[in-house]
Design a protein that fits this description.
The protein has 164 residues and is α+β, with helices and mostly antiparallel strands. It has helices at residues 12-21, 23-27, 35-39, 41-54, 98-112, 128-136; strands at 3-6, 58-63, 69-79, 82-89, 118-124, 140-148, 151-159. β2 and β3 (69-79) form a beta hairpin. The protein starts with a strand and ends in a 5-residue tail after the last strand.
């Protein structure tokens, strides 16, 4: 069974492989990270881990029993009891309910471990999979229309309860 783990330095090789192997798949539904992301991967990961240490962000990876990264699930811009949720799944891990289950688990962590009361998210209008995950996990559209790179998107929000 895959496990959600807080991002650590030893995840680096599997995380880079995940990003490289799924780059084209991701670019079909979310803005591409660009070549510099891969060229400067180690420095970026070091910066993310330093940011996580401050409590401003909480980065997670979904890892299978062999250590392969199947997904990323992040809470960023933590402030005043709220954060922005972002996630991406490996193409081969889609259509199995893993994203929905993991977002639900992360919502529980957000409330119980990180003390968050509100999560925000966004998804491109044409990213049906992400919009479905958000809806299934209790996020509701805010009506806010946003731009995600060159794509129109929608904003979502989820108020946390004591049960998450």
């Amino acid at each position: 069974m895959p496990e959600l783990q807080r991002l650590r330095p030893d995840h680096a090789p599997a995380l880079l492989t995940f990003e490289q192997e799924n780059r084209a798949f991701f670019a079909a539904s979310i803005p591409d990270r660009g070549d510099a992301y891969f060229t400067d991967f180690d420095a970026r990961l070091t910066a993310l881990l330093a940011e996580q240490a401050t409590g401003l962000c909480h980065f997670h990876v979904l890892v299978d029993t062999d250590g392969e990264v199947l997904g990323r699930f992040n809470l960023v811009d933590v402030a005043d009891g709220s954060a922005d949720l972002g996630f991406r799944m490996a193409e081969k891990a889609t259509h199995r309910g893993l994203a929905t289950a993991t977002v639900l688990h992360l919502c529980t962590l957000a409330a119980t471990e990180y003390g968050l009361t509100t999560l925000r998210a966004a998804a491109a209008v044409d990213n049906t999979a992400s919009r479905t995950v958000l809806t299934r996990t209790g996020f509701v559209p805010t009506g806010e229309k946003i731009q995600l790179g060159d794509r129109p998107g929608l904003g979502y929000i989820r108020r946390m309860t004591s049960e998450a």
